[in-house]
Specification:
Blueprint lengths: L5 H21 L15 H11 L5 H20 L6 H12 L4 H31 L8 H34 L8
């Protein structure tokens, strides 16, 4: 009787390794944006946030942190709560039990709404400031007014870019428009 070929002796190991890889791929983590946010308390939210570092990359973590800031800003702007703890509690109530994707969508929708309001205010201020004049020969005031108008135009341009970016990110998350 001849001994089995070396390749045949390795066959069970290769098959076992292939099955293990298949199981890891098939049972791997699902889309991280579909994970549920746990925010029933400050401690639960802090624990969820620290665990999110295990399945989100650095850019995604930064996006989540920015989204949380935006939602807190929304709470304050809507006068839903005042004070650090109350704002934090109101923000957590909005996101608890929702998917990470929903958290991001809500934040981008809030940001879009805020920027649209800001841009309307900037448009009104820009139009009013365009009618301002200085006394003939007052070069100092003329220079100041021109710098002010340029600064205002820069703020408007930055807000328009932020708005476009938020709209693009919202669209990438599967939403077509901001909800009212």
């Amino acid at each position: 009787m001849t001994p089995p070929l070396p390749a045949l002796r390795l066959l069970p190991r290769v098959v076992s390794l292939a099955l293990a890889v298949l199981l890891l791929v098939a049972c791997g983590p699902r889309d991280p944006l579909e994970r549920t946010v746990a925010a029933e308390s400050a401690n639960a939210f802090a624990m969820w946030r620290s665990q999110a570092g295990g399945y989100l990359n650095t850019a995604q973590l930064q996006e989540v942190d920015e989204a949380i800031k935006e939602l807190k800003l929304q709470v304050m702007n809507n006068r839903e709560a005042t004070g650090t703890e109350a704002v934090e509690t109101a923000m957590r109530a909005k996101i608890h039990g929702r998917s990470l994707r929903t958290l991001l969508r809500s934040a981008y929708e809030a940001k879009i709404k805020r920027l649209e309001v800001d841009l309307k205010g900037l448009a009104i201020a820009t139009e009013q400031n365009s009618r301002l004049t200085t006394r003939p020969g007052d070069t100092e005031s003329t220079a100041y007014l021109e710098r002010f108008r340029q600064k205002q135009a820069g703020r408007r341009e930055a807000a328009e870019q932020d708005l476009k970016s938020a709209q693009d990110k919202l669209k990438a998350l599967g939403a077509t428009t901001a909800q009212p």
